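dude i think i finally got it to work??
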Amino acid sequence: MQTELNYDSVFDAQEHFRLFLDSMSRPGKINTLPVMEILPPDGLQQAAALTGFALLNNDVTFYITGENREDIATYLLVNTGAQQAEMDVADYVFLPEGWYGEELYDARTGTPTYPEDSATIIAQIEFISELPKPDSLEITLKGPGVNGEAKVYVGGINTDLLDYVKIQNGEYPLGIDLIITDRENNVIGLPRSNNFTYAPAIIN
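look at this
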């Protein structure tokens, strides 16, 4: 598996990293990553691959779950220098579309002394939207970075994953940060500092 020659590991990574910072500091805001001429392996959306390119380096580790794990792990290693690790020590966890598994309870949630020593989950879903769509969920966020409340609509996410994140973040500042990507290169952040609820979207 070869390095992506059409991705600039300095310029592109910095540009995309700023988008992720904006997503995490303004929960629920939809940012869109530019479409690039890269070829991630099956099971890894372009947006998830670009997330990895921006956040991973040879000082951090990641865990892959779902199908085609080895190809995805090799791809991220070749393009970022980050190493694959077990769930209980990984800095970043990549989930395929619609996935949830109880192994997530092994993911790091920080310690009282070092609450920031926790994992970030990158969850791939079908779509993220500012407006409700058929079979979508409405996520309502409150907390730092949100003026009152923010609403965003998602499709193809496992509600067990959302329940897991709510449970893990119940003892803030311990918890899990969640980045959600979709097939259209959209991305949103659900940091552990925010509270959220979800319900089936109502389409008028």
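The mean pLDDT is 95.
im so relieved honestly
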